[in-house]
């Protein structure tokens, strides 16, 4: 595909270039999902995954100076000690820019890569709670100021401010201490990106940032409010948790070229998606008619499916008269809202959501073209800056600075194990 | 301590500088032990550990071009899938320079950091065998040439050359495939650094490099021969396994300044070591007499202890008339043989051992001073090059090239799970 080098899949230089572009745009953080399994049609496209989030962020940490570095790490098949050590190492390496998106694993194919079946949902969440508490306790096993590194006196550390943690839950445990001192931000920031009541509970207790998968402004506002209320219920200031709904972008001079660019990326999958688009609209649709718009009769009969929150938007796009192919190119079946078109549309989307209390910021996913991030940085960011909605430079140096989260040493909540 | 910045403990720049110096010396690989527990007297000295081998080698991979990168990864508390993924990511990131030192965990304090007790030795070794086979199978789940990355035809990979592994042992398992293509050397190289018959068996089956902890030329030759014989018994060419005994160096213009430099680093621990030195020599020795040599009567009565293979060397040093402090400064109780003195002594040591069939190379550990590696590279390496014992430049680009190990895709031996 023109504009995408298939070798980028294993090219850490391209990951570093991407991060440097985001840093040029003063983005607060990179957010790295994780999906340790081979998926997709590998014959025609690179898997949409990062080959290893921590190794990638190590490379990025060495090639950037300010942008935060948030990686997903599942607690279902990882030991708390290993998570604590590697995220803290990233935090030290980046001088206080690391964050951990703490999630359970929900795909049976991933469990199979670990030679196991998925535990029950309640067991996974119990282990997640235990793991976060152990990891935060390990991070805090060196108190603030424990690391002296005083060349003059020869004192390396204050052993009275380094303590074991001796925590043992039902699923995981650790004695500690971790042999790593605090970073410039104390310890990494917790993120959360799961869903449901159990995910909300985790976010409310521990998270400073939450990534949302939400399609409408109303749903985003409701999720953000639920999150803030849940935080208050556990005694936290709701402003301590920032909600970042996703937004996917293809920034082009006009809508048509944006759609064409998206068709070039994923148009080959459209024929098999037509049937589902029909279900969303309450119609029978056929791949053979991919290049035709809906007929007047179809538009009159169409009803957005209550089973898919993206359906109303899909119908709105259909009513604009686009062909089925172009409706799909609008990303109506994508994981997040999609902007395909001029920068001002992306800026307007974000301003509207932000001013409606539906977002504290956004997790932006530019398309896979190598210049997708540049269009965001060079065209969308200046619009937001001119409108007074986005900072013109970093105010601090750590991820906690960027999020307005206070420094942290150890657990943020009382131990519940 | 002068010449050692205590902040180096968390400074990845200093790790990269160290690696770049070793690469300037054309060293074949860096070898990174791992010891995930806080040890030592943290009040006065940095722990003698790396805070995270994989994150460190990720940084080093980005800052070097030719030197191999070998990290220790225990199979006792790590999942094969995680080991396979992270070492393969390092292999891709470094363009074929990664190696994995596959070992079991033997310290109960490490087990406690994972909230567990140590499994039995036989269980640990069974899990080690299973883990190496699963990891190698995952590495080989993409055959040679499976990754097409053909921008012209749009073909990313050949799905018929990517296969699941579906291995399940008594302790660990994985379905695969790993979503990572082969590197420039196929897959990482296996190293081994354990001991005993079970360690020998692991080395013989899987390893291309073995790190030895051995104090005398006779013992090193015996270990190397045992290793080669064990490799032949499992049907391998013994030349495929290289044996690297350790050597610790403090390179200075003369012996006296070498001893003083070592006293500055660790002299404070000497008083508590005097009693053990006495046991090695069959004498009662006292810390109060640290600055005196052994008396004629003591030298006449001294007998090297058969329980410590370092004893004969300690007695030889004592007979040279050094004080107890200086005897200890010679490193007679260290983990490996120690050279403290002029470069020619280090070169002579290596030439003697190499020509006696006691080593294929050496794992060199310069002292903790920042210029310790430079003295090795700038003073010892040229001597070995002039004697025709060491290459003047890298012949290839991958770790397999440096070791003379053939490219590998998948398991090197038949599956025994």
Automatic annotation (TrEMBL), chains A, B:
Keywords: Flavoprotein, FMN, Monooxygenase, Oxidoreductase. FMN binds at residues 34, 72, 125. Coiled coil: none annotated. InterPro entries: Diverse_substr_monoxygenases, Luciferase-like_dom, Luciferase-like_sf, NTA_MOA. One of its GO terms (molecular function) is monooxygenase activity. Residues 8-357 form the Luciferase-like domain. Belongs to the NtaA/SnaA/DszA monooxygenase family. This is Nitrilotriacetate monooxygenase component A. It comes from Neorhizobium galegae bv. orientalis str. HAMBI 540.
């Amino acid at each position: 595909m023109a504009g995408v080098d298939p070798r980028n899949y294993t090219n850490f230089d391209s990951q570093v270039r991407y991060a440097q572009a985001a840093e040029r745009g003063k983005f607060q953080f990179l957010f790295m999902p994780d999906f340790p399994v081979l998926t997709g049609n590998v014959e025609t496209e690179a898997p949409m995954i990062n080959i290893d989030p921590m190794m990638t962020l190590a490379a990025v940490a060495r090639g950037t100076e300010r942008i935060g570095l948030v990686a997903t790490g599942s607690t279902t098949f990882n030991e708390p000690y290993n998570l604590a050590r590697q995220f803290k190492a990233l935090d030290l390496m980046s001088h206080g820019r690391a964050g951990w998106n703490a999630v359970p694993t929900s795909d049976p194919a991933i469990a199979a890569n670990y030679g196991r079946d998925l535990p029950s949902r309640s067991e996974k969440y119990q282990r997640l709670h235990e793991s976060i508490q152990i990891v935060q306790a390990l991070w805090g096993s060196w108190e603030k100021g424990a690391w002296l590194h005083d060349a003059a006196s020869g004192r390396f550390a204050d052993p009275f401010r380094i303590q074991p943690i001796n925590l043992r839950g039902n699923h995981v445990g650790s004695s500690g201490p971790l042999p790593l001192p605090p970073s410039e931000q104390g310890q990494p920031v917790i993120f959360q990106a799961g869903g449901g009541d159990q995910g909300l509970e985790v976010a409310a207790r521990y998270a400073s940032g939450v990534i949302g998968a939400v399609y409408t402004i109303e749903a985003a506002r409701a999720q953000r409010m639920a999150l803030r209320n849940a935080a208050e219920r556990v005694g936290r200031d709701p402003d301590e948790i920032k909600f970042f709904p996703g937004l996917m972008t293809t920034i082009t001079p006009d809508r048509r070229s944006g759609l064409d660019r998206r068709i070039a990326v994923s148009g080959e999958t459209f024929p098999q998606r037509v049937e589902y688009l029909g279900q969303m609209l309450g119609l029978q649709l056929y791949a053979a008619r991919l290049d035709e718009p809906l007929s007047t009769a179809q538009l009159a009969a169409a009803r957005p499916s209550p089973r898919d929150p993206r359906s109303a938007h899909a119908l709105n796009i259909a009513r604009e008269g686009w062909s089925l192919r172009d409706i799909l190119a609008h990303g109506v079946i994508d994981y997040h809202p999609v902007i395909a078109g001029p920068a001002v549309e992306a800026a307007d989307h974000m301003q509207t959501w932000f001013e409606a209390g539906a977002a504290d910021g956004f997790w932006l996913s530019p398309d896979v073209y190598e210049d997708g991030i540049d269009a965001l940085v060079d065209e969308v960011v200046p619009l937001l800056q001119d409108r007074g909605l986005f900072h013109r430079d970093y105010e601090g140096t750590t991820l906690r600075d960027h999020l307005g989260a206070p420094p942290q040493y150890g657990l943020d909540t009382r131990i519940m194990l």
